[in-house]
């Protein structure tokens, strides 16, 4: 019997007529690790929230949700709290206390569990997740990865039968994300806990899963094993093919849908690539891969990003910048030196807590450094008055787009943003329509900004930024919560903006996006820039802050950083051997 079962579920949010879920059927057997994927806005989060009554959204629904054979509505809330664990996308949205130890105990205290039992379970989970070293710390001193691990541990103290995770690694750096998902798999393997997770980081999630369920436009369109779901999607030309792990995309590109069981992990992918290259004895004589992706226009600035004479200089400069949040606190920025030149599309990567977002705060005037000099658009952000920086052409999209939403609909928020640039009502309406079309959110204008997915919120925030006609755009994790299909559309939008003269500085954990589309990458560590270069220079030399394609091709296809590089290399060899 299924532990969780959704039967013919149809749902629409209040005050809307469009179904977010349409006749959804899903069964999750006890002990399974099920991965739920789909484009942003396809209904994944809405579906997950129907598995716990306290989180179920308000609206019109039909169909039945069952848990352990009973209609969920008949399962007492206290039992649901104990048996259904839920981890949200944003770590800060789930933490309710100020101390790590208290957060671990909070759920059990709320259920009235005896103190000796609470102490035992908290100690056990703290040890299981390696939390002992920061057990007594204040929660607000933790990194994003630590907060999310704390959320997972706090949920697991309840000993749930079903663990539901909604894009839990969206705000984590690549290394922290791998560690978090590994901990989730360990829970599944060692405790037998059933896991249902939505993720956009499919490179790590696919090899861990027993099943992959694909949603599109509120419907389940595929349900198969990780190794076979790619062929199912490819046969139907589903856009989610672009989101598959690099190994699967490589196999589908070279073999087509005839490869019904594609590799999904880096290890499997390297074995597959070795076998394919062994078919061509000339492969060993090639020492580099041609930069064909730039010839197609992707990352077209990458070839010139390190040539300071090729573009104007100094739209952003920071010299020996130091910053701390408290007078007696630790330095977050330690002598930051960087220069972003006009016309660049630059990306800052690095671990949680390395100083990336803080740097954006310093550049935009939100934080004042206690040492060093900053110039942005020719102005000192510390001395700039009022909206002077923004009138000069600065626009910022923060990591949490919800901080930008003030009205009841996305359309009203866009109208407010446009009113700062356009006084004529018709011009303002046309500007809003253009920005909404660019960000692909036209259908969302009547929706409340909190009723759409995280990826859709990111797109709405970008549309608001574009309405200010900026010269310089600062983006903090702009691809968070976005599917691979829209990331490609976003890249096209950003490339057009750069081609029109805009400069973009992006902070991101999305190394795949940075490798494919940006012109220069900078690595932050310990409060400063420790490395920089073009995507090929930068990612080809890294082991973890690099792309899956680079790990697939290391030692086999020199210099490859995208799946396109691997495919082009193999096809070039095949053409030469004919």
Q: Tell me the number of structural domains.
A: 3
Overall, the morphology is globular
The CATH top-level class label of the largest domain: Alpha Beta
Q: What is the rounded Rg?
A: 24 Å
What does this structure look like?
By secondary structure, the protein is α/β, with parallel strands linked by helices. It has three domains: 225 residues, 3-Layer(aba) Sandwich (Rossmann fold), CATH 3.40.50; 45 residues, no CATH class; 259 residues, 3-Layer(aba) Sandwich (Rossmann fold), CATH 3.40.50. The chain is built from 21 helices and 19 strands. A six-stranded mixed beta sheet has the order 6-7-8-3-9-10. The chain is globular, with a radius of gyration of 24 Å. The N and C termini lie far apart (56 Å). About 5% of the residues have low confidence.
Task: Describe the secondary structure blueprint for this structure.
Blueprint: E1 2-13, E2 21-29, E3 33-38, H1 44-49, E4 59-67, E5 70-71, H2 77-83, E6 84-87, H3 100-110, H4 115-128, H5 144-156, E7 162-166, H6 174-191, E8 194-198, H7 202-208, E9 211-216, E10 219-224, H8 229-235, H9 246-255, H10 266-278, H11 292-295, E11 316-323, E12 333-340, E13 345-350, H12 356-363, E14 371-376, H13 388-391, E15 394-397, H14 410-419, H15 425-438, H16 454-466, E16 472-476, H17 484-499, E17 503-507, H18 511-517, E18 520-525, E19 528-533, H19 535-540, H20 548-553, H21 563-577
Parallel strand pairs: 3-8, 3-9, 6-7, 7-8, 13-17, 13-18, 15-16, 16-17
Antiparallel strand pairs: 1-2, 1-4, 4-5, 9-10, 11-12, 11-14, 18-19
Helix pairs in contact: 3-4, 3-5, 5-6, 9-10, 9-21, 14-15, 14-16, 15-16
């Amino acid at each position: 019997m299924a532990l969780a079962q959704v039967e013919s579920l149809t749902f629409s949010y209040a005050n809307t007529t469009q179904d977010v879920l349409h006749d959804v059927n899903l069964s999750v057997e006890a002990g399974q690790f099920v991965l739920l994927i789909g484009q942003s806005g396809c209904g994944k989060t809405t579906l997950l929230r129907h598995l716990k009554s306290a989180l179920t959204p308000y609206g019109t629904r039909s169909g039945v949700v069952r848990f352990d054979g009973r209609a969920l509505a008949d399962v007492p809330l206290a039992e649901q709290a104990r048996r259904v664990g839920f981890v949200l996308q944003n770590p800060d949205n789930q933490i309710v206390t100020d101390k790590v130890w208290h957060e671990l105990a909070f759920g059990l205290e709320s259920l009235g569990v005896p103190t000796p039992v609470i102490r035992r379970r908290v100690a056990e989970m703290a040890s299981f997740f390696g939390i002992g070293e920061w057990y007594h710390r204040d929660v607000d001193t933790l990194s994003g990865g630590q907060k999310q691990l704390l959320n997972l541990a706090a949920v697991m103290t309840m000993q749930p039968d079903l663990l539901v995770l909604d894009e839990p690694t969206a705000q984590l750096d690549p290394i922290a994300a791998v560690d978090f998902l590994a901990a989730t798999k360990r829970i599944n393997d060692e405790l037998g806990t059933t896991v249902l997770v939505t993720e956009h980081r499919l490179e790590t999630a696919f090899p861990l899963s027993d099943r992959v369920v694909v949603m599109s436009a509120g419907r389940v369109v595929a349900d198969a094993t990780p190794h076979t779901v790619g062929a199912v999607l490819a046969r139907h030309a589903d856009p989610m093919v672009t989101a598959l792990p690099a190994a699967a995309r490589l196999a589908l590109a070279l073999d087509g849908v005839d490869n019904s069981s594609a590799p999904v992990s880096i290890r499997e992918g390297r074995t597959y690539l070795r076998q394919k290259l062994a078919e061509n004895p000339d492969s060993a004589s090639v020492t580099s891969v041609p930069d064909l992706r730039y010839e197609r226009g992707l990352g077209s600035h990458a070839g010139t990003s390190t040539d300071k004479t090729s573009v104007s200089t100094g739209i952003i400069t920071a010299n020996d910048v130091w910053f701390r949040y408290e007078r007696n606190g630790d330095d977050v920025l330690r002598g930051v030196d960087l220069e972003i030149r006009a016309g660049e599309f630059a990306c800052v990567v690095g671990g949680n807590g390395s100083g990336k977002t803080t740097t954006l705060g310093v550049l935009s005037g939100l934080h004042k450094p206690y040492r060093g000099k900053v110039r942005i658009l020719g102005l000192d952000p510390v001395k700039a008055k009022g909206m002077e920086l923004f009138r000069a052409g600065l626009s910022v999209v923060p990591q949490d787009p919800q901080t930008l939403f003030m009205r009841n609909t996305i359309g009203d928020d866009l109208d407010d943003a446009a009113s700062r640039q356009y006084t004529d009502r018709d011009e303002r309406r046309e500007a809003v329509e253009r920005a909404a079309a660019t960000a692909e959110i036209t259908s969302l204008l009547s929706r409340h900004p909190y009723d759409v997915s995280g990826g859709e919120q990111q797109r709405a925030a970008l549309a608001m930024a574009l309405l200010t006609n900026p010269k310089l755009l600062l983006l903090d994790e702009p691809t968070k919560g976005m599917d691979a299909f829209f990331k490609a559309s976003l890249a096209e939008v950003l490339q057009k903006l750069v081609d029109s003269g805009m400069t973009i500085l992006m902070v991101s954990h999305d190394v795949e996006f940075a490798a494919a589309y940006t012109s220069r990458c900078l690595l932050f560590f310990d409060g400063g820039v420790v490395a920089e270069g073009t995507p090929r220079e930068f990612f080809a030399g890294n082991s973890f802050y690099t792309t899956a394609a680079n790990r697939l091709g290391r030692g086999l296809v020199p210099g490859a950083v995208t799946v396109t590089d691997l495919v082009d290399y193999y096809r070039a060899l095949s053409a030469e051997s004919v």
